[in-house]
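Protein modeling request. Please complete all fields; requests missing the sequence field cannot be processed.
Requester role: graduate student
Desired output: 3D structure, token encoding
Chains: 1
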Amino acid sequence: MIQFKNVSKIYKLEKSNKELHALKNISFTINEQEVFGVIGQSGAGKSTLLRMINQLEVADQGSVIVDGVDMCQVNANDLRYYRKDIGMIFQQFNLLSNLTVEENILLPLKLHHYDEFLDLNEILRFVGLEDKRHSYPAHLSGGQKQRVGIARALIIKPKILLCDEPTSALDEQTTSEIVDVLRRANKKYNITTVIVTHELNVVKALCQRVAIMEEGQLIDLLTITPSDSVLKSQTYRERAMEVLADES
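Delivered output (248 residues):
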């Protein structure tokens, strides 16, 4: 369980000497093994909120409680321990270009000691990259790169998976494929998944609940029913005609 209790974050703008209130007194709870979405326009505070969970951003006020531990009160040494249960997926994939697919996936295991982790072959099969294990990122499509990012996050057997705009750099068909991988990961590995996105169709296809953010404030919390039909398996021409065709 992840709890935000009266969380606020203020950035001081150096040039103007003004303050930007990125988060304003945010309180809500994310349930264990839930797929939870955070949506809002650019600058709404979505990514700041997400990065509070693993303390890449630090609150000025309030508490972020993960599995009973107030992450805001954890010292630097202990923070490394708690972060080992949190995987993260990024918008721009964040792969190392000089490492193969296999080496990128195994990188977390090289940087930290994990008592438990997934088998490499299992995770390659899960994300559909068995034939790309020795390829370099330059030879992969955007969707394949994101699958590597997902595999790298999953191999440590995280309790929590943080996804920061994981599909915004992808086309619609590839987005559908990545959403399917994330949905299956949540079910197979019992992971609490938090996904920040501006794509409403992704939220509808994947999440059980969603927080709507606006100018650093939590505007609403909605319960939704995930729908497999939202991300349609259409050709690009079919999708274009559906959106662009003159209804008259």
